[in-house]
Amino acid sequence: MRRAAPCLFACLLVCVGIAPAFAQGLFDDNEARRRVEALRQQVSESQRLVEERLSKIESAVGASTDRSAVLELANQIESLRGEIARMRGQLEVATHQVEVSDKRQKDLYVDIDTRLRRLEQAQEQAAAAAAAQPPPAAAAAEPEQSPGELRAYQAALDQFKLGNYSLAVSAMQGFLVTYPRSSLAPNAQYWIGMAHSGQRDYKSAIAAQRKVLSAWPDSDKAPDALLSIASSQETMGDRKNAQQTLQELIAKYPQSSAAASAKQRIAAFKR
After folding, report:
1. For the chain, which terminus, N or C, has the lower number of CB atoms within 10 Å?
2. Chain segment 53-78, per-residue pLDDT in tens
């Protein structure tokens, strides 16, 4: 009996040793879910094996007449039960981390989807207005995009919509290299920032949006860039600078739809 107990401890510790490695931080969503499921199966199997061996140890305790051996085995039983409880706790923590990650990702997708719809609606309204009221012949007409230019921009935007953020960044950067004077250039730079946000690289997202503000401060995307910066700052836990960015947005672009959103967020900060 005394030789069997250390073997049982060794078996349990091998199984338990896998759990702390998982709890060290949030993994990529798919990888985290895979590891949680693997850990769940390991906990279940380890619990089954331990319960079987506990039953044998308890039977041996009942049959033993050596008081010191009984006490040693009883202590080992309590230790094993404690290890099982610890494994269950680590599994609950890991599962909670995946749930929190899923919620953050869904919230991000909702925010991005809302902004995409607004952009598409604004583009449709602008196109309808331009068709209904063409500019005077004497006015300097804004250069139209070539078919190749439009295709390149749309292809890059499609990568963003599909959630292929790294490809979207590369495609938009390629667009800016090929068409640096395009009227769509500020839009391309804005979507680079949003793609970085989609990858949760908020420092790069802020840097990309600041390029919109420095290179195209009068573009329609400038207010949205400030709103995106504030969102990244808030997500990073920098609520003070996020609020200052929102106030800057309201001061510089008071008539923009982004300014209306900024007012709502500032009101939420004060609650």
Report:
1. C
2. 777 776 766 665 666 776 777 777 77
